[in-house]
Amino acid sequence: MTYTSMWFAFAFVLIALLLSVWQKLGLEKEIAIGTIRSTVQLLAIGYVLQFVFHSDNALFIVILIMMMISVASWNAASRGKNLPGIFWRIALCLSITELITMGLMVMLGLANPTPQYLIPMSGMIIGSSMIVSSLFLTHMNREIETAKGEIETLLSLGASTRQAVQGVLKRAVKASMIPTFDTMKTIGLVQLPGMMTGMIVAGASPIEAVRYQILIMLSFSSSAAISAVLISLLSYRLWFTKDSMLRL
Amino acid sequence: MHTTIEIEALGKQFHSPSGQWLFRNVDAKISEPTTIAILGKSGQGKSTLLRILGRLIPPDSGTVRLYQKDITQWEAADWRMKMSYVSQQAVMLPGSVEDNLRTVSTLHQRPFDQKQARDLLEQLYLENLDWGKPAQQLSGGEKQRLALVRTLLLQPPVLLLDEVTASLDALSKQAAQRLLLDLHAQTDTSLIWITHDLEEARIACKRIWFMANHQLLEDAPSESFFHAPQTAEAKDFLHNQIATVAATEEEPR
Hints:
The structure holds two protein chains of two kinds. By secondary structure, chain A is mainly α. Chain A is built from ten helices and no strands. Helix content of chain A is 78%, strand content 0%. Chain A is globular. Chain B has a single domain (5-250), classed as P-loop containing nucleotide triphosphate hydrolases (Rossmann fold). Classes of the chains: A mainly alpha, B alpha/beta. Chains A and B meet through helix 7 of A and helix 2, strand 6, helix 4 and helix 6 of B.
């Protein structure tokens, strides 16, 4: 695709803008900011990736993946502003998930240890783990609020914080993993995933594209489970004070 | 070892920018097993005081000592096993009646004493309760009595009771009072009991803590509190409570 044809793509934004003005939705600013940010961010990452691919230097891959983890952690941590130290816990959780999942892929020979494979696949795994972590925090905050009586009853019966919050943790972990598995059930029927679509558009055979998509989807199942369980174990104490009282 | 609880300059502030005190400078001492009723109008911080004693919320000033050991030196779970709080709103844990009865044995890996559980249920007229029934499906009164039994199976030396008989019918209320007083007499369990029922306080409790004006205004033996309250606030409180009860009883049915 040439830059000229890319500019034509802005016609789609024009449609959104016209509809917003016509229906007085007041979304013009949001649409403009979203368009500019996504274009600039994607162009920038395109040039960065091109540089990293050509440099063939492992350090750049590590830096890029660390950047992805930092941004993802910052984004997910915004769901847990009430929890001191949540950013570092999410960062640790995403790093371990990334290490286990990508490590396994490389060890089993499912992905080549080259920037072309490592970076996009890491991006997808980190992105999916970020969503799981955000969902966990959202569900956990809600569950703690509604199950306050249950937790305090258990504490009053001499339960440890872990015992008191066990039921709530389980419900939040399950709720944060369900969307990943729901997506797996409908993929290919309801939506064609971006990676597969991208490969087909770029000229790869649909069967090869599907094979990669299956690999990614299956890796999502483990990364969702790892990140949900890890973030629950790393963070549950944050809902309690150091005196084991519920922090509300 | 006898229960010794020392409350020293205890205070709690409202969570508002004004930082006004809900109560402050509360001092009290319990040096032998006893039964105490906490009385006072709504909003005086009675439940808050009890929740601080149960280590569910922190105080903003002062401290509490149990067996001469400061609250901060205790493991939280150990403290709560010694001073266990039973809330006004009975909370049923997920699962069946039996799951709720087994909570303490599950948490602390103790053998479940089925006979003791049955005895306690019987004393509260719950002998016909279906143990397999989901606890959430019980009536309010059944939940309150089951919550009480669940805590009694922990056998704490101090029970912190937050209006636990308020939602019970007259018969169940009497049964609960009798059970708690027998427990006190037989096992030296101390009872610190919030109630709005003056008769309950008079019959069941040896001492009265009266809270008003953001402080523990009176700490007196039950007999002398009811016959010769020391403060104008306590006199007003007793007068109003008695008048309210009389008016309720006179209401045409």
